[in-house]
Amino acid sequence: xxxxxxxxxxxxxxxxxxxxxxxxxxxxxxxxxxxxxxxxxxxxxxxxxxxxxxxxxxxxxxxxxxxxxxxxxxxxxxxxxxxxxxxxxxxxxxxxxxxxxxxxxxxxxxxxxxxxxxxxxxxxxxxxxxxxxxxxxxxxxxxxxxxxxxxxxxxxxxxxxxxxxxxxxxxxxxxxxxxxxxxxxxxxxxxxxxxxxxxxxxxxxxxxxxxxxxxxxxxxxxxxxxxxxxxxxxxxxxxxxxxxxxxxxxxxxxxxxxxxxxxxxxx
Length: 267
Ligand code: NI
Hints:
31% of the residues lie in helices and 24% in strands. By secondary structure, the chain is α+β, with helices and mostly antiparallel strands.
């Protein structure tokens, strides 16, 4: 594999800001006066098919030195996730979640078998799999049916393999006291913040606070017409020290559960 970690994240970012031009605007706004913006983590979505699950998608990251560190269950949303860390702590963590297909309707399972059949890429060896996008045709009628069962599934069906969100690492961001100040600043600049479960998810006691924008709605060409659907969102994470004095590097399932709703429709 010839791709470097830096090149991989550059390609992922380029694809991400095409789906979510808002993230680039915020990145530019926060990075004014030549400030460097560090990423806390980049998140991906997949489904628990024998060829495309979390462990499969993780392999290209593991080949670049990433190691599995934590796992998470989301019972109501019927998801499972793992996070990965790199020895170079300036590199973002990778958070990969998967839809637990067996907990959904036959119709949803059939749709995802179809997706799997049309995805010929070998996710274990293809460095670019994480930004390879969609390998199948999409229909708005199916999107709407999936959305009723799982907005997560509808998003995955529409966008395929790509970064669902990048996350600004707040601890290394200059100029703001806390996430509430950052959220106010973004709202003053007309960006919409996800308010599900409160604008700031988590707490210092949980050692992680997070907030995010609501995903922008972009026009997508489906086989039965062009429709606007929520795309990707931008997240912000502030980490606190654990009892040993080290910054907590994990995730909080209860907070992530609400953050997943950033790709829900806003109207
Ligand atoms: Ni996240």
